[in-house]
Amino acid sequence: MSLWEYANPVKFLNLSGRVLPWVALLSAICLVVGLIWGFFFTPDDYRMGSTVKIIYIHVPAALMAINAWFMMLVASLIWLIRRHHVSALAAKAAAPVGLVMTLIALITGAIWGQPMWGTWWAWDPRLTSFLILFQFYIGYLALWKAIENPDSAADLTSILCIVGSVFAVLSRYAVNFWNQGLHQGASLSLDKEKNVANEFYHPLLFSIAGFVFLFLVLVLIGTRSEIRIRRASVIVARKIR
Amino acid sequence: MRAVLLRDLRLAMRVGGGFGLAIMFFLIVAVLVALGVGPDVALLSDISSGILWVIALLACLLSLDRIFSLDYEDGTLDHLVIAPLPLESVVLAKATAHWLTTGLPLGLVSPLVGLMLGLPAEGYLWLVLSLALGTPALSVIGTFGAALTLGLKRGGLLLSVLILPLYVPTLIFGAEVARRGSIGIELQTPLWMLLGLSFGVVAILPFASAAVLRINLR
């Protein structure tokens, strides 16, 4: 009994089918608790007023945008090394979710930035690197779309994902160097004594958990449908022959 | 390896438009930028180093799909794959040929275009140097993109979408060297970063490109 057993599509479908409703429920609960608590039961910030509340969407989305790419990287490596199809399909399923998360982070950031910084957009390192991440997602998805043979598409996108990760990290530090930022430092980190004040922090944790589960749900659904599409196309191919 | 390199160079020259096309593109876009921005020399000279880098990048991009596509179509590439020469060396030779026909001439012509755009006098050396150090990275990264989009029908546009994000670090450091050079402030850090980036990319990326080629020709 090892984790790799679930690389078998049938077992994966069974397990994910059983887990999926629970994860979805958990995600819904966390999101509802986090967002309602955050939006209605926290005080306004003394400097930022009620605009601070966008943090409950902005921060988790930004977090997931990066982690989705990281998950794609791991899945791509697993595909290249162990050739498990489920892994390649999971990477494919994660990309659109990551793309949307990046977009949400950019848009909520712009909405928040307009009243707070007085501008929708600034060429700040964090903003710029998110825009670059967005382009990476688009390139990755475009490559998946463009190649017909599913196996070589999986191979090529995996390599692109690995090379892209290196360049994404490089770009992150390059833009840091290029322009000093307007964006505040990290809102959360594990090794800091004090993060944001507690009354903002607790609902934020809930909404982050909600986003993580939401990501998991979407990726599972996406992977399951990719597996089924793959099966359906095999059946169609057989019938034609 | 030398044979591949020389063959590519000869092909580029005889087909015509190997050296010339990239340079012409460079000049034309520079003129277009001047026409679009207006003849304000002060403004042009402020942005000239960045503009020159962006144009160089685009000129590089323009000729990328030629690296492999012709060889792919007439089957030469299949022979190169089964040849005793490692595919990584083939990739590197092709990237070198691409650099010699685009990056190098661009670097040589750039002072002239810089003159047109009113680049400050102290900037020329650094502009040429940054282009000379940065364009090899552009060629090698571009080779990777060309290998990825090999044999795709809508390859050209996809190639730009894939490659432009990968060009970001090179562009930032290269343009920063040129910009700092032109206004005469300390530029050690971006210069070393650019150099490190170029060397790193040249050393590592051919392996990825060769892997991609093998998958594409499977």
What can you tell me about this protein's structure?
The complex is a heterodimer of chains A (241) and B (218). Helices cover 78% and strands 0% of the residues of chain A. Chain A has 6 helices and no strands. The model of chain A has no long low-confidence stretch (mean pLDDT 85). Chain A has a single domain (18-181, 195-240), classed as Four Helix Bundle (Hemerythrin (Met), subunit A) (Up-down Bundle). In chain A, helix 2 (55-82) crosses helix 5 (150-178) and helix 3 (85-117) runs antiparallel to helix 6. The longest helix of chain A is centred in the C-terminal third of the chain and has 43 residues, at 198-240. With 241 residues, chain A is mainly α. Chain A has helices at 9-40, 55-82, 85-117, 125-146, 150-178, 198-240. By secondary structure, chain B is an all-alpha fold. Chain B has one domain (2-216). Chain B contains 9 helices and no strands. Chain B has helices at 2-15, 19-37, 41-62, 66-73, 76-82, 87-116, 123-148, 155-183, 188-216. In chain B, helix 1 (2-15) crosses helix 6. The longest helix of chain B has 30 residues, at 87-116. Chain A binds chain B through residues 132, 135-136, 138-139, 142-143, 146-147, 152, 155-156, 159-160, 162-164, 167-168, 170-171, 174-175, 177-178, and chain B through 144, 148-149, 152, 154-155, 158, 161-162, 164-166, 168-169, 172-173, 176, 189-190, 193, 197, 205, 208, 211-212, 215-216, 218.
In short:
Chain A has 241 residues and is mostly helical.
Give the total of beta strands of chain B: 0
The structural domain count of chain A equals 1
Query: Total strand count of chain A, please?
Result: 0
Number of domains of chain B: 1
- Which descriptor suits the 3D outline of chain A? globular
- Give the oligomer, counting copies of the same chain as homo and different chains as hetero: heterodimer
How far do the termini of chain A sit from each other? 38 Å
Beta-strand share of residues of chain A? under 5%
Low-confidence stretches of chain A: none
Termini Cα gap of chain B? 22 Å
Number of helices of chain A: 6
Number of helices of chain B: 9
Overall helicity of chain B? over 70%
CATH architecture of chain A: Up-down Bundle
Query: What is the CATH topology assignment of chain A?
Result: Four Helix Bundle (Hemerythrin (Met), subunit A)
Major sheet of chain A, described briefly?
Answer: none
Hey, roughly how much beta strand do the residues of chain B contain? under 5%
For the record, the CATH class of chain A is Mainly Alpha
Q: Report the radius of gyration of chain A as a whole number of Å.
A: 20 Å
